[in-house]
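Lay summary. Proteins are chains of building blocks that fold into shapes, and those shapes determine what they do. In this project we predict the shape from the chain. Here is one chain we studied, written as its sequence of building blocks.
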Amino acid sequence: MYFSCSGSACSGATASRFQQVQNPVALLPQDNNGVIVMLPGVPANGALWATGSLVLGIGTQANNAPSGVTAYPADQFGEFTTVISGSAAALTGFLDSGSNGLFFAAPSAGQLPDCGVFNAGWFCPPSLVNLSAINTGASGSPSGVVPFQIGNFNILVTSPNYVFADVGGSAPGIFDWGLPFHFGRNVYAGIEGKGSSLGIGPYVAY
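And here is the predicted shape, written in a compact code that computers can read:
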């Protein structure tokens, strides 16, 4: 997304293709067909910190060979389809390690209450909630179940920890698989038009 600003007032704007910033990985002389985000698992109550790796290339070197993952084709926007268990609504799903939570609309009223005034928009269930969703590639296949948990944001953020795998908030019509999704997984992102043993990008795999 791009923005145009006048003083301190900014609004969304359209950028010409010439002005748009390209993923620099695609411009590398080698290892340029995608990246792998590798992050450790995080306990239910969080962790003080976490250290991972961003690996360049997919299947181009000994350290980036795909193993035990399923590739989900994405559309030109990097999106696929997500359906939360208990709901028939198909949501626009995407992976985003830059989002600090899982963002989606609660599948049923009252299941994931809002945190209230100080942390409005975040989920604060009275106890840990176990959920699952089905991701389907933009081409209609494959499909796979992803289990996940949502904890009480107000309680979690008052702990001494800074890293959480079970925080989420409300976002209608989409499912933003943010940073919590990436913990405990190797997540592959294939660049558009670039090939690997997982297929031709864009795709995500985990």
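What the prediction tells us: Residues 34-205 form one domain.
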